[in-house]
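[step 3/7] fold_predict: job queued, chain A
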Amino acid sequence: MARLGCRFVLRFGLASLPVPAASVPRTLRLPKPPPWPALRTPVRQFSAKANSKTVFSALVSKAKYINEKYERFLERTFPRFYVLYSTFLKGIQVFYAEVKEIRRIKANMAHKNIQFYQLPYREMERLRQFRRDLIKAIPIGILAIPPFANYLVLLLMYLFPRQLLIRHFWTPKQQLEFLDAYHSTRKEAYAEVVDDLMHLSHFLADPQLRKRMLHLCRKVQEGSHPDVIELKAVRTLFEGHPFSIQKLSVQQVKVLSRILFLTPRLPPFILRYRLRTHLLELSHLDRAMLKLGVRELSDEETQVACYTRGLNSVRFSPLQCRLWLDQWLELSCSLKDTEASLLAHGMVLLSINYLSSSKG
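[step 4/7] structure written:
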């Protein structure tokens, strides 16, 4: 009977009517709810990426703490070594930033399809200086390739920092000493350049140009600083015979190469090519600097620019360097590419007696 009643209820839709629990079979009864809600075990979802970031930041913080502690120990115990150590670390950071900047400049040149001489002054100067640093650093990198040779390289770098290290790894004191030493070597050739000009001037065919040239050379030899107008007055002599780069003797080309910090130990045709290339590069830099404006340069940029062009800026104030740069640009930006030889000789003539009382 119970089964028949259940069927009747389901067939005729009377399931909503109250039915006594006793009359419903146990198999059809709903399960009783528990006296309290079922406790669900919380599931924590860990992010592998977030977890690895947390671990990495913790390791970095720990490494920084240990490094700071080590640096304080070095500074207290070995102060001289600490100066070298901190300079080396800063040098690596600056050099790495320099490499990134050079890559950006190169990518920009490729994207815009522009040449070196079309770049702004600061980017041109950065590329020029980076090439020189790279040429100096490559031999050291090659020496460090064999196993355990890096220890020997480190020792050599410690013993000969001026010859083997690039400028990023010099201490402030070393920068002053080394730049002064380099200029002293360069300045030894200045007198020889003026003597050669004086000697060749005696054989000039044009009497007026001969007179002007001899007067200019005597003025410099007597310790006076020449005017830019005096150099411009003899510019035609540096375009052809006898003072153009192609007409100078091999010895004169070697002397001028030393002034630009170029090695003189190369075949004559390579010497002339390198000298001319560097002078034209300098000319492009000067035009870009003139476009930027000397007053826009920082004190450091101004002193570097003067040093590159023959003046020992270590011995002069930034203001004196700016005044000298104004004279230099007045000469440089008025010359043609064929008069590049006057640019090399002008490095000597305009700097040898500049403010003589300052030991320039």
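[step 5/7] annotate
Residues 79-112 form the longest helix (34 residues).
DSSP finds 15 helices and no strands in the chain.
exit 0
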